[in-house]
Amino acid sequence: MSRQKKAQIIDSLREAFAQCSIGVLTDYRGLSASEITILRRRLGESDVRYRVVKNTLARFAAERAGKADLATSFDGPVAIAFGYGDITKPARALADYIRTSKSSLTIKGGFLGDRLLTSDEVITLSTLPSREILLAKVLGGMQSPIARLVNCLTAPIVGVARVLQARIKQLEAE
């Protein structure tokens, strides 16, 4: 491979490292080319790019992107799933693929911003609900005390209204 081609690959990887919201490193040993193509299609549906990288070029790109800690993670065959939206999507898509296809693909780790993630942390990310669901749960938790207060304050008034309504029905029956 020529120096110019290597420089282009390093630049494209550096941009991917800088722009992605999360990256998941995988060991793709044992996957055939057709299985990798199927995996790429599944990940593409989740707005995730999957790239097989050369370790030395990936190290240079990681250092240039300001992720020098990540450079130590490139051992053996490595492919990276770059996620650009929701941070749980790449982890969830990879975990689903591993579970459904029973393939030999393994998650080696990842990175979230400047923080390195272990494989266990990536798997934990795959089990988290989406951002919208988490926001809905937080909002529901914030509204719950207010709803209880309103119920407590209106309970005596509702009780008086029910007693009066019962008395009105009793008088109409006579």
Total number of distinct structural domains: 2
CATH topology type of the largest domain: Alpha-Beta Plaits
| Integer average pLDDT | 84
How much of the sequence is in beta strands? 15-25%
Q: What's the story with the biggest beta sheet?
A: 5 strands, antiparallel
CA-based shape: elongated
CATH homologous superfamily name of the largest domain? Ribosomal protein L10, N-terminal RNA-binding domain
Summarize the structure in words.
- With 174 residues, the chain is of the alpha+beta class.
- The protein has helices at 3-19, 33-45, 55-64, 88-101, 119-127, 131-173, and strands at 22-27, 48-53, 78-83, 106-112, 115-117.
- It has two domains: 3-128, Alpha-Beta Plaits; 129-174.
- Strand 4 (106-112) and strand 5 form a beta hairpin.
- Helix 1 (3-19) packs across helix 3 (55-64) and helix 4 (88-101) crosses helix 5 (119-127).
- The longest helix is centred in the last third of the chain and has 43 residues, at 131-173.
- It is elongated.
Question: Topology of this protein?
Answer:
Blueprint lengths: L2 H17 L2 E6 L5 H13 L2 E6 L1 H10 L13 E6 L4 H14 L4 E7 L2 E3 L1 H9 L3 H43 L1
Antiparallel strand pairs: 1-3, 1-4, 2-3, 4-5
Helix pairs in contact: 1-3, 4-5
Supply the key terms:
174 residues; alpha+beta; Alpha-Beta Plaits; 2 domains; five-stranded antiparallel sheet; 5 strands; 16% strand; elongated
